[in-house]
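Lab notebook, bench 4. We co-purified these components, and the gel suggests they stay together. Before we commit to crystallization screens, I want a quick structural picture of the whole thing.
Request: model the full complex, all chains together.
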Amino acid sequence: MPPIEPGDNPHAETPKKLTVTERLKQSEAERVRLQREVDSLSEAALSKWLLIAHRESSHVAMTQTVSWRITKPLRAVRIVQRRVAEVGVVETAHVVAATLQRRRKSSGK
Amino acid sequence: MSLTVEELTDSAFERLVAVAPYILRDPAQLADLESRGSGALLSALIEDVRHSGRNDQVWLLSVGLTGSFPLPDQVRSARRSLLLADGDLAFIDFLEATFGLATGTESLDVTIEVVHRGVVIDVDFCATNLAHTGIQRVVRQTMSRWYGERDITLVGWSPHGRSMRRLNKLETSRVTEWNTYKEPDPSVPREEAGRAHIVVPFESTVVLPEVPAPYLCNVLASLAEFSGNKVGLVGYDAIPVVSAETVPPAETERFVNYLSIVKHSHRVAGISAAATEDFLGFSHALRAQGLPPVPAVEVSLPIALPDSAREPQAAGSAAPLVLCVGSQEPRKNQDAVLFASELLWREGLDFRVRFIGGGSLWFTQGFDQRIKALTKKGYDVEVWRGVRDEALLASYAEARFSIFPSLHEGYGLPVAESLAMGVPVVTSGYGSTAEIAVGGGCVLIDPRDEMTIVDAMRSLLVDSERIDVLRSEIATRPSRSWDDYADELWDGLVVPLGSAVNV
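Here is the predicted assembly.
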């Protein structure tokens, strides 16, 4: 849609061109359509955020339970067992050593 | 509980609609935004809060979005994110800043009720516990008078302390009808609770007549500092800090957390001159942190009886009864009473001793063994725990005198109750108990000198004339009831904070 120029005359008869009023109406309709789109995108973003927060909160609640924390070392052992079965003792030992080294570095010890 | 995205979005929309009128004050704009859905409404709210930069609106919008009361760092972080945001990205930045709050929430399905310019009173402990010693007695006596008479909202906390909620019927009864309600049979299944509903005070007065549980202190400190609500406290004492050696370490930790609320609160009503002084001392120290002092006023507890359905009856003609009421712990000095009693029994005096009150197992286990040992020797001593006010009043009616040699008190409710029953009291000669004693009817002792306790007890056991003099002093004391206290607390604490409609 062409922009509204400062020299446009709302009373001029231009059969091929739309009147200013009509163009304003069209602009308004377009503004409303875009506004709806923005609203809908905002709503979609909020809905996604709520869903992720909801799932994350279930995860957080579970990891804060006593049983989850007590069984943490057991889960670590189980992961190592699986890796040994998949890639062998040597490869697993390398990965475990590298992981521990990275953790030590990141904790500054 | 698993929720669909539609349920989550609808709930968030309901919450945003509930808080919106306190952020966007133009009803026409509100109606338009509501018709455009949750995304549009949240965008407009964020934009408005971003322009105002007001902490109270950041706090309120955070609650509206997440259904959780934010902690101090969460309010600061959300506000900074808004102030730093590029206009168009403020929406995303705010969602990011409040994500941690949302994931910590108990349920994103909650609905909310904003209490605007009202009086919200946190009575969580009394509503959910059956303990009934010092603080709980004050809370129940006061709330039973305010409830129905004043425009108040009694609240507790959600299970993990994320938000305030209204009390259910049973909880309300525990707070306002202690002596008449009946606990339900625990074997009868309770009704399923529906969707959680939270209470959000805004531009209101929030009264804390209890010392909140440690896990609530940070969220309440945030409410006091940022929410725009005026927070008023009943100040009982500062014993866990200033007499830390007399309480378990956990009590000191709890109290220090409590001070984080006190420092941002707006008014404290001390239960005695001594307690008020303690809070004023802390208040003056706040200057070093660049914080304004918190006004502390004295609203002393009454010399009055607990409410009881029946008139107490004195027992027959057994040996004279010495009554020692109060929670059992080292600070209350019950061991000194046992020591003094044993000495006097050995002298050949005939009397009974009854302790009434509960206590932590750390102390009561050893205490009970000492009671058992004395009983084995043939001395007449007993402990009553978990008794209702009727039994307490009957014991006062039966007692020759009561004894309360506490090392440090915020008030000394058992001294006041004993005097209200016309029963002379042996009590500590300093602090709040000495304040109460000024009106007569008391024998003052040094609780750190056990022999002064022995002398006082002996004197009151053998000297009936002295008992009569003390009783006549009590009869001439000016009376002050729980009704008086409840009225004075309302006028001294709630009214000055601005939200109360004085009835």
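The helical segments of chain A are 20-63, 66-70, 72-87, 89-106. Worth comparing against the SEC data before the next meeting. The longest helix of chain A spans residues 20-63.
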